[in-house]
Amino acid sequence: QVQLVESGGGSVQSGGSLRLSCAASGYTGSIYTMAWFRQVPGKEREGVAAIDTEDTANYLDSVKGRFTISLDNAKTTLNLQMNSLKPEDTAMYYCAASATRGATWLPSALWSTSYNYWGQGTQVTVSS
After folding, report:
1. Which residues pair with 27 in a beta bridge?
2. Pairing state of beta strands 117-118 and 122-127?
3. CB 85 within 8 A of CB 95
4. Most exposed: 2, 99, 104, 126, by fewest CB within 10 Å?
5. Which are the contacts of 46, defined by CB distance < 8 A and separation ≥ 6?
6. pLDDT at residue 115, rounded to an integer
7. Per residue in 70-103, pLDDT tens?
8. Contact criterion met (CB below 8 Å) for 4 and 95
């Protein structure tokens, strides 16, 4: 089993920055891909960015150039640096992990069905 705990959410004005972190524990040696998702009430969970242990990354088009996903050397801490935040980035952000080796550059890396471990989420609110 793998446990994921997110931190770093909060409130910021439009144009500001936040850095989210996700600490993985448990059987972390099994993890190949980690990702960030976000969800607003009444909408489906949306894949924001994914990265694998070989540092191949994939991003949602609307966050490219603004968000950067990274995995520390120990492969146990996932980060999401979010710059130039917009009100439409407001959501609950979730960390996810998968033990399945897949093609991180494919759209499926941003599908929630590709992940079997999830954190509890951290709220990000961007005001205009």
Report:
1. none
2. unpaired
3. no
4. 99
5. 37, 38, 39, 60, 91, 110
6. 96
7. 999 888 999 999 999 999 999 999 999 999 888 8
8. yes
